Amino acid sequence: MSIPQERRLVTAIPGPKSQELLARKQAAVPTGIGTTLPVFVTRAGGGVLEDADGNALIDFGSGIAVTNVGNAAPRVVERVRKQVADFTHTCFMVTPYESYVQVCEKLNQLTPGDHEKRTFLVNSGAEAVENAVKVARYATGRQAVVVFDHGYHGRTLLTMTLTAKNMPYKQGFGPYAPEVYRVPLAYPFRWPGENPAEEAYAQAVDMIEKQIGAGNVAAVVIEPIAGEGGFIEPAKGFLPKIAQYCRDNGIVFVADEVQTGFARTGDLFACEDEGVVPDIICTAKGIAGGLPLAAVTGRAELMDKVHAGGLGGTYGGNPLACEAALGVLETIEQDDLVARARRIGEIMLPRLRAMQERFPVIGDVRGRGAMIAVELVEPGTKNPNPAAVQEVIKRCHAEGLVVLSAGTYGNVLRFLPPLVIPEHLLEEGLGILEKAFS
Ligand SMILES: *Cc1c(COP(=O)(O)O)cnc(C)c1O
Fold first, then answer.
1. Alpha-carbon distances, residue 339 vs 92, 237, 368, 425 (angstroms)
2. pLDDT, mean of residues 344-355
3. Burial category of 351 from C-beta neighbours within 10 Å (exposed 0-12, middle 13-18, buried 19 and up)
4. Which terminus of the chain is more exposed, N or C, with fewer CB under 10 A?
5. Which residues are within 8 A (CB) of 196 and not within 5 positions of it... i.e. 6 or more apart?
6. Same domain for 330 and 341?
7. Which pTM was predicted?
8. What is the CA(391)–ligand 1 centre distance, in A?
9. In this structure, how many other beta carbons lie within 10 angstroms of the beta carbon of residue 313?
């Protein structure tokens, strides 16, 4: 790594140069585009972000689970550099190129299930989810889509409709797309009953059969771990039951692995944890080290139903992004980042559980691999405590640790370090967090 792997603060956060840039941003970019931490980045790599003032911050965000292999990862840079000099675009639907096909072959091989698969490439997670619904509707001749409480699927009209949370994603942007139905998720920390997997499953099926009719459902779309909703790992057994229900009723089971994919959770894909095999899997974020790319991978018999020209887009599978994806997959494999993700979980979870003993504001510690969260409550209750999250984040940012919030109630701190973060930075970041809680 070319960037020194150390935290270094030379100004207050944000420093004067970043503040100047922030003022320009505010004059040029609409307020709808938020800013978590207003330091303007000039360079990044490993577990470090460098800013315009010369500060070096520890990265526990990975640009929202994107730079799993690290920023400007060497194999990604090398491939993209060569590609940008050779050609930058032809449109795969006009005159194709090999790297697109290679990425699809790789995803067909690496995603769960050994059935025959097809993949096509698009630009963003939302576009991938939207296309999965198009394929499911076409292949089944049905219209209804079932999604879950706490789910997040994107910001386009359809995926915003699929998303559970009103603020900030939906407020004022309706009317929403029709034929979308939301059912409960087995959220272990907040489920009122003793048996969240069984009870949430029974409620979901009851709602589907009463309100829609299983025979009208094209697709069930679910994140194997709800990301924006607060890193909610559904109670064990819930996902396999939902997948089985889909198989029994001719419903396309769509796994939205946009946030959980590419080694993040300590498996290449989070569905592997319970042996769930989706009919269609949507991927994006971690796929190409930050270049815009997303993929829809599904059973050949579903995907090949759609007529020629029915799917696509001008930029989908851009050659630079495809080369980046090949570099990402090589890096995950050759540097065994699946094992690195597990190791990160093994370091973080015990430290966070020890903090939970000391600080009653921490209601729950959860996650898998390098997708870890703490849910903050008013001590002695389960009442969400978003103010505490904001306070902890403010202190972490001031100390040069990039952390993000999440959660339906805004009361979750989430940690998504790059899988290549050196362990001394991971430990230092946890120390800053602990001090912030103190
Ligand atoms: C981020 C995200 C999306 C949307 O991806 P974009 O690339 O922002 O469109 C969809 N689903 C999940 C689970 C996500 O985390």
1. 35, 24, 12, 18
2. 98
3. middle
4. C
5. 186, 187, 188, 234, 235, 238
6. no
7. 0.98
8. 26
9. 15
Residue 2 inside a domain? The answer is no
Q: Which atom of ligand 1 is nearest to the CA of 159?
A: 10
pLDDT at 1 over 80: no
pLDDT in tens, 226-270: 999 999 999 999 999 999 999 999 999 999 999 999 999 999 999
Query: Does 224 share its domain with 321?
Result: yes
Cα(145) to centroid of ligand 1, in Å?
17
In a domain, 1, yes or no: no
The per-residue pLDDT for range 38-73, each reduced to its tens digit, is: 999 999 999 999 999 999 999 999 999 999 999 999
Q: Which of 285, 287, 291 to mutate to test the pocket of ligand 1 (most atoms within 8 A of CB)?
A: 285
Q: Please tell me if the CB atom of residue 125 comes closer than 6 angstroms to any atom of ligand 1.
A: yes
**Matching residue, tokens 């050609």:** 87
CB-ligand 1 contact for 124 (6 Å cutoff): yes
Q: Measured in angstroms, how far is the CA atom of residue 154 from the centroid of ligand 1?
A: 5
Q: Is the CB of 152 under 6 A from ligand 1?
A: yes
223 ligand 1 Cβ < 6 A? yes
Structurally, the chain folds into a number of domains equal to 2
Indicate whether residue 128 lines ligand 1 (CB < 6 A): no
Give the closest residue to 15 by CA, choosing from 40, 45, 42, 43. Answer: 40
**Which domain does 60 fall in, by range?**
16-72+336-437
| Ligand 1 centroid distance, CA of 258 (Å) | 6
